[in-house]
Amino acid sequence: MKFFLTTALVAVSCVLTCAQEFNHYKTLLPQGLVPRDFTDRSTDKFITEVTSMASGKSRREKKARKKFYLESTFSVDEFLASGNVLFNDEVSLYIAAVLDEILKPYPDLQKKIRIYAVKSAVPNAFTTNNGIIFVNIGLLARLENEAQLAFILAHEVVHYQKKHVIDKYVTNIEINRSKGDYRKLSEEGKSFAKSSFSKELEIEADLGGADIYLQTDYVKDSVYKVFDILKLADHPINWASFDNRNFESGKYIFPDSLVAKEMKAINAEEDYDDSQSSHPNIKKRKEVIAHKFNNSGKGNYFKLSKSMFEKMRKTTRFELCRTYLLDHHYLNALILGLSLQQQEPKSAYIKETIAKALYGLAKDKLASTKDYDQEYWAGEPARMASFINKQSEYEVCVMALRQLYKYHEEAPDNDEIHIMVRDLMWSFGKKEYSTLGKNFMRKASDKELAGLRYPYTQYAFVDFKDSDSFFKLFEEQIALAKKEDPDKGKRRKKKTSKTKLLKVDKVVVVNPIYKKVDTRKRQKVRHIESEEVLVNIDGKIKDVAERLNLKADIINPNNLSSSKVTVMQSNSLLNDWIDEQMRSDEDVRVSPIYNEIIALADSYKTDHFVWLGEFTLTRKRRGKAFLIAGSVITPAVAPLLVSMLVTPKGMTMYFGLVFNVRTQTLEVVDVRQMMERDSRSLLQSNIYYTLFKLKKVRQ
What we know:
The chain is an alpha/beta fold. It folds into three domains: about 1-230 and about 270-305, no CATH class; about 330-485, no CATH class; about 500-695, 3-Layer(aba) Sandwich (Rossmann fold). About 55% of the residues lie in helices and about 10% in strands. It is built from 28 helices and nine strands. It has helices spanning about 1-20, 35-40, 40-50, 60-80, 90-100, 105-110, 135-140, 145-160, 165-175, 185-215, 220-230, 280-290, 305-325, 330-345, 350-365, 380-390, 395-410, 415-430, 435, 445-450, 465-485, 490-495, 525-545, 565-585, 595-605, 625-635, 640-645, 680-695, and strands at about 115-120, 125, 130-135, 505-510, 515-520, 550-555, 610-620, 650-660, 665-675. The strands form two sheets. Strands 4, 5, 6, 7, 8 and 9 form a six-stranded mixed sheet that branches. A hairpin with a 4-residue loop joins strand 8 and strand 9 (about 665-675). Helix 1 (about 1-20) runs antiparallel to helix 5, helix 4 crosses helix 9 (about 165-175) and helix 5 (about 90-100) packs across helix 8. The longest helix has 28 residues, at about 185-215.
């Protein structure tokens, strides 16, 4: 066993050392064999949970627990299928090794608990009732050492050990129903009771986690610093001083009025009001465990390896840049990118992150969607927020365009950046900035410059290697933008009969959705029936595609074998892409992972990806008295009315969206509501109609 563990740790170390080349960082993706948590059917997991339910519970509590097992099992599995959860990647392997370290005295727990990293910026970790610990990269990126991670994991282990998740669920039901000790509580009282019970569980997890932690050789003072990290969780990760000179060159120098001299200091409160919170405030949590660490002596900050920890943290910070861009948290991405650039000044990935973040900020300014002068910004991030907020949309666009084109000169083959350059230039034309942009220094006299509103911006593009190429492209995009007018769409519709049909030979259907709800039942959401449809939906899609002479690949995380890791990798990338597309709404912008998606499209040999789903509702038929009276009064229609009487009323909502990921255009929008119950034939006909419409799309 000892040899096995040593070999495993060496393997993890090798993975962490070799897996990432940070100059051209690649996103984290699931690796290796797909774990059973992802492949086993939710229905089977639910049956196992119910079968293993402890005896001696009251009938009411058994019902509550059975409902919890049903809801939580399917909810967790939906999360596992979301594309955000990683497995067998370098980060998940490392945190699993730390978990093994703290669970050495608990071999039974080692066998039961699984752990996965999650691509989320939220600084959090959470545990499921069936023994899965999820740790967000947003938390891992903030840690200072391995010991802090060990305490966080020990805390989560206690949540599983003590079955806190299900206890909280059952207690909340008792509170909502005003049962037992919770009789006669007002709504405010119920809310307070739920908050109090949740805080009790957190305190128990802190104390129990401390007991587990004390059995390790990790240094004890790291525990208090964990709470300091949580205290600052709402603030961006930053350790660099903001310097506007990072964006200046030659005579392109920002006016002093744009640069804030003094900013509010970061002052996170420990003793905040937690009366309605699920967690105690930081001060209380520190006080509760303080006695555990009296005279506890010294220890190690790192048990596995300092270099392994630092590699893991660096990886999560680089990954966090990408997550911030996808979440449209562009200022956070810029702040983190500038900090990372101090450590990796030559990293192409960081230069690209900074350019993309400025592109996003410029698009936000143009759309007037965000104001970064918010009170919660403090310290150096506040200085950056103020700097962006004080600039006009024109000034931010100039700064962004400069950074994008500078990086484009360094990486001319990067299609993503080139498209962003053209898009931002086009935006100048749409905003009628061409009169300001025409002279960009080259031929303007000092007198002419003095008359401009933002004279310093005229020097923004004079230091490029080939400024003539820049201005030529700029003028082309301005001309293209000015050619467009409000009547363009109308004229296009009139000409569609003369255009060619798209030649679509293949599609990829991504993570189909199906939900069945029956309000006549006590358990309204029919999870088991819904899963049965999803498991068998691949056949329906294949049949439809064959009838339409289409090839169809299906990325269905609900129908996996352990060897299908490529399905989960594709699902992860496409989930990131579609979420970001939906976030953009009507404000069209180039995806920050455009290159990743094009590489995926090339591997599938198609640009056409389909998202589809169906929601079906069955409810009791109302007005039965009228139906009975009608059948008596009009015998001729009695058979029809009787059939309506015994048939429940149904409604089905279906959606089908087809995207061309290369052009980032929505080719087919197929959304329909049908006042009828779902059936196998209805779902199949809906899928047929979506793919049939794709055949009718014109170029």
